[in-house]
Design goal:
Blueprint: H1 23-36, H2 49-56, H3 60-72, E1 76-79, E2 83-86, E3 91-95, H4 101-107, E4 112-123, H5 126-132, E5 139-149, E6 152-162, H6 169-176, H7 179-185, E7 192-202, H8 205-211, E8 218-227, E9 233-242, E10 246-250
Parallel strand pairs: 3-10
Antiparallel strand pairs: 1-2, 4-5, 5-6, 6-9, 7-8, 8-9
Helix pairs in contact: 1-3, 2-3, 6-7
């Protein structure tokens, strides 16, 4: 996502006071026009609140109401620590026999990224044991990750592996930022999707923090089982996608 600010002082004059139209609404309409007319391209960063307040000659309360309106309309999005950007079109995310996050993001012309947020060996719970076809309590390696496109977090999730087959997978994933490259290193790169389940719900506090979501936003929960060429399960994942940043496409 570009970090350049496209909107210039010449593009926006002071709002008209005494016109009968609320100042915040005039500001929202001006910025919306910039987006619709293509002067603010998808991914463009807006000026800071201080800069916009000075440009329009209004206080920050008025400006924030305008920005909140544009956010509700799905035209802009604030990402904590980075700024406010014109919304990118949803990332088209195909789910098929071979589903690879980095490949999908790259194919959409965006830069994939990822980071491991935690890992540990733990006893398999009932749902993990069932998915991996192992005994309840068997050792599994759990890896928690956040993945992004152009620096914008797209999904956070937990991934479980049969521990004895995937030693050091977490260390390799942490070094590369990619589960696919880590599994290739261990000779397990030819894994295939065996099953996918998709549900939706409101994001919880941790998901809002990891995905930089505002309260009330929705996540799509994608549970998946991946297997080796002999269709033996080797990975069970529970990923949460920001619902308005992706379009899941199920391919048969």
């Amino acid at each position: 996502m570009p970090d350049n600010t496209v909107m210039t002082p010449a593009a926006l004059d002071d709002v008209a006071r005494g016109s009968g139209v609320a100042l915040w609404k005039q500001i929202a309409e001006r910025i919306e026009a910039e987006i619709v007319e293509g002067r603010l391209a998808p991914g463009a960063r807006l000026p800071t609140e201080a800069e916009l307040s000075e440009r329009f000659g209004v206080n920050r309360h008025t400006l924030r109401r305008a920005l909140a309106t544009l956010t509700e309309q799905g035209l802009i999005e604030a990402t904590p620590g980075r700024g406010t950007f014109v919304r990118e079109p949803p990332l088209r995310y195909p789910i098929g026999p071979r589903t690879r996050f980095s490949e999908i993001v790259s194919a959409e012309g965006r830069e994939p990224g990822g980071r491991v947020t935690g890992s540990q060996v733990e006893p398999a719970t009932a749902d993990v044991a069932k998915a991996l076809k192992i005994a309840l309590g068997d050792e599994v390696l759990r890896i928690d990750m956040v993945r992004d496109a152009d620096g914008v977090p797209i999904t956070c999730g937990s991934h479980w592996y049969i521990a004895e087959r995937c030693r050091d997978l977490d260390l390799i994933a942490a070094a590369t930022g990619s589960v696919t490259r880590a599994m290739e290193t261990l000779g397990l790169g030819d894994y295939r999707r065996l099953e996918t389940r998709i549900t939706a719900r409101l994001a919880d506090d941790e998901e809002r923090r990891l995905l930089a979501l505002a309260p009330g936003r929705t996540v799509m929960v994608v549970e998946a089982i991946n297997g080796d060429p002999q269709r033996r399960p080797i990975q069970f994942s529970r990923a949460r996608f920001s619902a308005d940043r992706v379009q899941l496409v199920v391919k048969s």
